Amino acid sequence: MAQSLSVQPQRAGGRPIPGQAAGGWPLELRHLAGGAAVTEEIVPGFRFSRASYVLGLLRPRVYRDLDLGRHGLKIYPRDPSSYTPLREDHWGGGGRSLTLGPREDMNHQQVAQFSAKDADALPRLEALLNKFAEALAPLMDAPPPNLNKFYASGLKGKVKELFSVSPLLKTGKKDVLYV
Questions:
Q1: What is the pLDDT tens value at each position of the chain, 179 positions in all?
Q2: How many domains in the chain?
Q3: Which among 29, 52, 26 has a CA at the least distance from the CA of 40?
Q4: Does residue 137 lie within any of the structural domains?
Q5: CB 39 within 8 A of CB 50
Q6: Distance between CA atoms of residues 52 and 46, nearest Å
Q7: Is residue 105 part of a domain?
Q8: Contact assessment for residue 35 and residue 25, using Cβ atoms and an 8 Å cutoff
Q9: Domain limits at 157?
Q10: Does residue 88 lie in a domain region?
Q11: From CA 167, how far away is CA 179, in angstroms rounded?
Q12: CA angle (30 as vertex; 26, 34 as ends), nearest 5
């Protein structure tokens, strides 16, 4: 198994260290250096960027703390953000591909090729997903809960831990149960 490398921001007094130190971010977990920028031959004769789409998941805090802009990282939004071609035997009476991006009208038109009902429901689905994303955002930068501490604590400790995920619980109760 390849050894990982983690980093802690310099202003926090950290330095790059082998392994996953507490408070550090893993930089490389694979045998091959490059992370999301690696291009590999996945299908014989065809090379792909294996995971570049996940750069969109890069936390703003990590970008800032590692000063990635100063080191030359530039992020360009994709438009369209998704293109899915269909095999010819799946064309049927609908479209031959699905292309999605930031424009709601274009997304509606693309989904409507396959289902007008789904196209009309798409804005509600996106609004729900955005609410979940907003609820999850603070949890992404927080340390994971210590389950041993949670189970060992009394009622007061458990309530305190549950309070930290209350935006997610409220979103789920309010929006999922009544969709």
A1: 333 444 544 444 544 444 444 455 555 667 777 766 678 887 788 777 766 666 767 788 888 888 889 988 888 777 898 888 888 887 776 778 999 999 999 999 999 999 999 999 999 999 988 888 888 887 777 777 777 888 888 888 888 877 776 766 666 655 554 44
A2: 2
A3: 52
A4: yes
A5: yes
A6: 16
A7: no
A8: no
A9: 131-179
A10: no
A11: 18
A12: 80
The set of residues, in sequence order, having a beta carbon less than 8 Å from that of 86 and lying 6+ positions away, is 95, 96, 97, 98
Considering the entire predicted model, what is its pTM?
0.60
In Å, how far are 22, 105, 155 from 141, measured between CA atoms?
13, 33, 26
Of 35, 34, 2, nearest to 20 by C-alpha is 2
* 35: its two tokens: 């992370």
- Strands (DSSP E) contained in 4-159 are 5-7, 17-18, 25-28, 39-43, 46-49, 82-85, 97-100
38 inside domain: yes
Q: What number of other Cβ atoms are within 10 A of residue 24's Cβ?
A: 19
Query: Strands (DSSP E) along the chain, which ranges?
Result: 5-7, 17-18, 25-28, 39-43, 46-49, 82-85, 97-100
